[in-house]
Write a structure and sequence with these properties.
Blueprint lengths: L3 E5 L8 H16 L3 E4 L5 H12 L4 E6 L14 E5 L2 H10 L3 E4 L4 H15 L7 E4 L6 H12 L12 E3 L2 H8 L8
Helix pairs in contact: 1-2
Length: 185
Amino acid sequence: MIRSLLLFCGSRPGHDPAYAELAAGLGRLCAAHRITLVYGGGQVGLMGVAARACKADGGRVIGIIPRLLMTTEVAQDGLDELHVVETFHERKALMHRLSDAIIALPGSIGTLDELFESLTWRELGIHDKPIWLLGTRDYWQPLTALLGHIASAGFGPPHLDTLAEPLDNLASLSEKLGPQGVAGH
């Protein structure tokens, strides 16, 4: 049962308003399923949009932010828990410890760093949590193609491109999360 979902996404909103709509929808979906949203703790970009939408719909949100980012990403007010850590490594370790599944929305190299570490840990058997990729307009298609290319070139296992599952929309994610309102807090 998924009780908490770790979100990796951009600290910027992107150019297309559909990205922010997706992040807000994810936040509302977590609240509807009573799933705690675990994320980077900032109020900026898609991560702030998702956190505020989850809280606005009565959801539970845990933020984990490195002290270094307290001025640039500014911690989101009103979270159920905010953990300020010293390093990015501590941030990722705590995020993983507090989550049952992982989802990535569009983002930049920080999002990719977090995502790739999760993929690596899953490939190595450090965790077996589901990892989902959710984006609009085939945002993640180049990444899944790259993972397939790496595997076909012999630099990864044949299943490398299946470590993360692309999802078409929020309805697909909702099916993965199970019936609404049953996960508990």
